Amino acid sequence: MDSQIEEIKNKLNVLDVVGSYMKLTKTGINYRGVCPFHQEKSPSFFVSPGRQMWHCFGCGKGGSIYDFVMGIEGVEFGDALRILAAKAGVQLKRENAELRTERQRLYEICNWACSFFEKQLEASEVGKEVKEYLLKRGITDESIKKWRVGYSPDLWNSLTDFLIGKGYQREEVVKVGLAIHKENSQDSYDRFRGRIMFPVFDLNGQVVGFGGRVFKQQNETAKYINTPQTLLYDKSGILYGLNNAKLAVRKKAECVVVEGYTDVIMAHQAGYENTVAASGTALTSQHLVMLKRYSENLVLAFDMDVAGDSATKRGINNAQELGFNIKIIGSYGPAAAQGSGGQGMVYEKSDPAEIILKDAKIWENAVTGAKSIMDYYMDFSFGHFDAKTPEGKKEISKIVLPAIKRLVNGIEQSHWIQVLAEKLGVSQEVIKEELGKVKEEKSRQEEPVAVPSLNGQEQRKLLLEQRIMSLEGSENEEDKKELQLCIDELEKLESKNRQQALMQQISGEPDESKKQDLIRQLDTETKKFHSIT
């Protein structure tokens, strides 16, 4: 297995692996970006292609491609190995089924369930009706296959029986959210029955959960139900379609966020592949941190309660505080392209999927004509309250001033202070005075950075890595000399660690042949150590 670990490392470039998850900018011979492991505004996360390593000077995390994938995906080493093996095109040696991680078995269950639902869509009589319905809604056969849309039979145990037949335990089917325990019983029944099934994927395209839309409406039946919180599925950290959208988001430097599964599918089908959806929830801090890896520009197609305190509004406030450039699609008709005019907003909303089916050009105009978040707040407030009356001015200020307060850029703040003062017919000094009274809205909290406890050798290695990354790319001769000294010292430190590991293996190896092989490796490593200047 060790040889395969090295083979994967040799086949993959740290820049490609890290760059597939987050936005990186070239800085000298290194690359940097906003750290995905702690909240920050100025990028302190660096990637060194030359040394095939990454490091964040803000939170202290760093290491190899395996460390990065384990951290970003929240998985164990074995799962990170499988993810990277797939990227590298390396076929891992078969492992004992008993040694597979619990998480891996749950991934397998989700994938089998997805295949089961796909088969039901194609082969069952009701499934064929569902497919005809989807085709009428404009979803093509190609899109059905791409997004692995399926159908869950309206039966109590069809999926569970199928999965048990594949060798999985009833308790595992419950644990992954596909079945529900009967009250006061170890027995269970399928969670999804008689529904159009939309599998939800993680960033690597693995099925982690499902959303099910009822096909034939019954009394007291929820239109949509979703996988509950599981070991694999956390709706606050999953964006539907991001696995297929992330490259387009980075390329277009913009992400369009809609509300529904079919909205995403139809948008991608029409060529707007930078579209994602929050999975049955408003935008969360985790969603925003994830999106910021790819772009800081968001276009939101949400129903907003500007004057209220909805979860959607709190998510948008959070995005503002994180420095996102936000635009809002206020309508899908001619009014969508109008700027801030103070005449109120025209609402002609229906689902993006329906609009795209009717005329994809209308959706294109809606996206390109989306209003900035500040234009949106201004239009809404001036459209709903009379700016000529003291009461109206007060209500307008209640909506607009907190939005101005959240702006990170001082120049942008100054611009909107001027605009608001002119539109209300008051001085900028009055606006600034009232702005000072607005309480900071803490829709997110800075999480303390956990600094690992390191021994002296580990601390020295960390300091050397940090210094190397700061010196790489410098044209100064003294810096070049120091860089070489740091590299030599780091190589000696790493060689010493390898020697110690080999000595431990030798002392515990009962097989004489294997022991001699380890001794030869130690001899080679010792010579390498002494050859370093």
Description of the molecule:
With 533 residues, the protein is an alpha+beta fold. It has helices spanning 2-11, 14-19, 65-73, 77-88, 102-123, 125-136, 141-146, 158-165, 170-175, 242-252, 261-269, 285-292, 311-321, 352-358, 360-368, 373-384, 390-406, 410-424, 428-437, 456-471, 477-507, 512-531, and strands at residues 25-27, 30-33, 45-48, 53-56, 62-63, 150-152, 179-181, 188-190, 195-201, 207-214, 224-226, 239-240, 255-258, 275-278, 297-300, 325-328, 371-372. The strands form 4 sheets. Strands 12-14-13-15-16-17 form a 6-stranded mixed sheet, with helices on both faces. α11 runs parallel beside α14 (352-358) and α21 runs antiparallel to α22 (512-531). The radius of gyration is 28 Å and the shape is flat. The two termini are 32 Å apart. The model is unreliable at 333-347 and 442-455 (pLDDT under 50).
Radius of gyration: 28 Å
Strand order of the largest sheet: 12-14-13-15-16-17
How many strand segments?
17
Report how far the terminal alpha carbons are from each other. 32 Å
Q: Keywords, please?
A:
single chain; 533 residues; alpha+beta; 6-stranded mixed beta sheet; 5-stranded antiparallel beta sheet; flat
